[in-house]
TrEMBL record, chain A:
<dbReference type="GO" id="GO:0005886">
    <property type="term" value="C:plasma membrane"/>
</dbReference>
<dbReference type="InterPro" id="IPR009075">
    <property type="entry name" value="AcylCo_DH/oxidase_C"/>
</dbReference>
<feature type="domain" description="Acyl-CoA dehydrogenase/oxidase C-terminal">
    <location>
        <begin position="232"/>
        <end position="374"/>
    </location>
</feature>
<dbReference type="GO" id="GO:0050660">
    <property type="term" value="F:flavin adenine dinucleotide binding"/>
</dbReference>
<keyword id="KW-0274">FAD</keyword>
<dbReference type="InterPro" id="IPR013786">
    <property type="entry name" value="AcylCoA_DH/ox_N"/>
</dbReference>
<dbReference type="GO" id="GO:0003995">
    <property type="term" value="F:acyl-CoA dehydrogenase activity"/>
</dbReference>
<dbReference type="InterPro" id="IPR046373">
    <property type="entry name" value="Acyl-CoA_Oxase/DH_mid-dom_sf"/>
</dbReference>
<dbReference type="Pfam" id="PF00441">
    <property type="entry name" value="Acyl-CoA_dh_1"/>
</dbReference>
Automatic annotation (TrEMBL), chain B:
<feature type="domain" description="Carrier">
    <location>
        <begin position="1"/>
        <end position="77"/>
    </location>
</feature>
<dbReference type="Pfam" id="PF00550">
    <property type="entry name" value="PP-binding"/>
</dbReference>
<dbReference type="InterPro" id="IPR036736">
    <property type="entry name" value="ACP-like_sf"/>
</dbReference>
<protein>
    <submittedName>
        <fullName>D-alanyl carrier protein</fullName>
    </submittedName>
</protein>
<dbReference type="InterPro" id="IPR009081">
    <property type="entry name" value="PP-bd_ACP"/>
</dbReference>
Length: 383, 83
């Protein structure tokens, strides 16, 4: 059994190990190269599709694999173990898949889900703008009614996999409220401008996505007008947060395994650095953090699967704890590796940069610190 | 109907402790309803009353007040006998 994986049942462990094999064969060996090149090859995304991973949240009738939330979580841990950039693609694609599954009408589901399920079409989530991140209601992209369709105008920024995505879930101001639209990449008026060299998840192919009088048909409106931010974006972000929480567990697990390996092999002052108690303390904190984060994620998964109202708070907590402890783990991994930790050819520096991103996306650490406090009183009143 | 209203009232109290909503009071007009609130409200009615809120139910009038949510839940729970 791998370090720290004892919080799983035998069945869960088998599922994790099978996803880990995929990650170890197809993803992890290339993660540093993809990070340097700033891109994940499309074949890798296609392999994710072929393995059924991109259909994880799509019903079987549309070709999806319809995983339960715990298995979806374990998948995210495994992919996050291999490469956070690939896990980011899985995250945003799953958010789009969830939104269309949940809020799409029958025609929209038939139109989009089969392609999303196989990965023939990859989805991206276009909410943030230069002037609107945490405060999503500040977005200025607008949708105007135009005959039997809509005209979208505005610019979305930092859109994960924007460079490669085929389908965008776009949020815009619409008649004084916010609505959600699904737009294909080849829609006239939609332009993708790559953003390269991000601090972390460098291979996740971010882009600025511009809408210049971009006309979409009436069938592009997802859900009813005015419900774009709630529940559509909010529910998708909930899925994203859950995915990032588990991805952070995978990232921290990778830190733990690398650190154990290096500390046992590297010798200083007459023995392995592992024998020094100050190093043991770093590894103890890392192992404890991974286990605790995984337990919070498992709890969140059970609550989400059961549809419990308390699931929302549980997911926020899991993401808050998992992302902050992953950043600590990555920082300590660089420390334990010394110069090797800073070396451009090594994984620790990539993990460190990727881990910082986990504290910013899908609700920053500070937003979580204020939200969880506000969610707690509601939970306490429940029997 | 009354059970639904009681549940919605309890939910609202958990969220907004310092305001007691009247059954027909506009929750959105109160300024209390942010995106997380609406999502949690939907999760709560789905869980408590074993219904699924779908695309066709996304109308503000369905969530505007305690009365409105009770009407939505009652209408959606009215499954014909034998199914
Ligand atoms: C690698 C990467 C990938 C991304 N991918 C996507 C994507 O696919 N789709 C998409 O739509 N967006 C994406 N984003 C954008 C991301 O969602 C935003 O960066 C995030 O929401 C934070 O918003 P912001 O960057 O504008 O920071 P701001 O909201 O400007 O926050 C700046 C700082 O202020 C703090 N702060 C803000 N409000 C409060 C408050 N109320 N209380 C306390 N502190 C506060 C924040 O914690 C942060 O530290 C991505 C970002 C990154 C870095």
């Amino acid at each position: 059994m791998r370090a720290g994986v004892h919080s799983l049942t035998d069945v869960q462990n088998k599922i994790l190990q099978s996803h880990r094999r995929f990650a170890e064969d197809e993803i992890a060996p290339h993660a540093n190269a993809w990070d340097r090149e700033g891109r994940v090859p499309r074949e890798v995304v296609a392999a994710m599709g072929a393995a059924g991973h991109l259909g994880a949240l799509i019903p079987a009738e549309y070709g999806g694999t319809e995983l339960d939330m715990t298995e979806f979580g374990l998948l995210n841990e495994a992919i996050g173990f291999g490469c956070s950039s690939v896990r980011s693609v899985l995250t945003v694609h799953s958010m789009v898949s969830q939104a269309v599954t949940r809020w799409g009408n029958p025609e929209q589901r038939r139109a989009w889900l089969p392609g999303l399920a196989t990965g023939e079409q990859v989805g991206a989530f276009a909410l943030s703008e230069a002037e609107a991140g945490s405060d999503v209601a500040q977005i200025t992209t607008v949708a105007e009614n135009d005959g039997d369709g809509y005209l979208l105008s505005g610019t979305k920024r930092w859109i994960t996999y924007g460079q490669g995505a085929d389908v965008f879930l776009v949020f815009a101001r619409h008649n004084g409220r916010h609505s959600a639209f699904v737009a294909g990449r080849d829609t006239p008026g939609l332009t993708v401008v790559p953003i390269d060299g991000m601090l972390g998840t460098r291979a996740s192919m971010l882009a600025e996505v511009r809408f210049d009088n971009c006309r979409v048909p009436r069938s592009a409106l997802l859900g009813r007008p005015g419900f774009g931010l709630a529940p559509i974006a909010a529910a998708a972000l909930d899925v994203g947060r859950y995915s990032v929480a588990w991805g952070s567990v995978g990232l921290a697990q990778s830190c733990l395994e690398l650190s154990l390996g290096h500390a046992r092999e590297r010798r200083a002052f007459g023995g392995p650095v592992f024998d020094h108690q100050l190093v043991q303390r770093l590894i103890t904190d890392m192992a404890t953090g991974v286990s605790a984060a995984r337990l919070l994620c498992l709890q969140a998964g059970e609550l989400v699967q059961g549809g419990a109202p308390t699931a929302v708070a549980a997911v926020w907590m899991a993401k808050y704890f998992a992302s902050t402890s992953a950043f600590r783990a990555a920082s300590d991994t660089v420390q334990i590796h010394g110069a090797y930790g800073c070396d451009p050819d090594g994984s620790p520096q990539r993990l460190f940069r990727d881990a910082k991103v986990m504290e910013i996306i899908e609700g920053s650490t500070q937003i979580q610190q204020t939200m969880i406090a506000r969610l707690v009183p509601y939970e306490e009143k429940r029997p | 109907m009354e059970t639904v209203k009681a549940k919605v009232r309890e939910f609202l109290r958990g969220y907004i402790a310092d305001h007691e909503f009247a059954d027909d009071e506009d929750i959105f007009a109160s300024g209390y309803a942010n995106s997380l609130f609406v999502m949690q409200l939907i999760y709560m009615v789905e869980r408590e009353f074993q219904i699924t809120v779908g695309d066709e139910d996304l109308e503000f009038d369905n969530f505007r007040s305690i009365d409105a949510v009770a009407r939505l839940v009652t209408a959606k729970s009215a499954v014909p006998a034998g199914t």
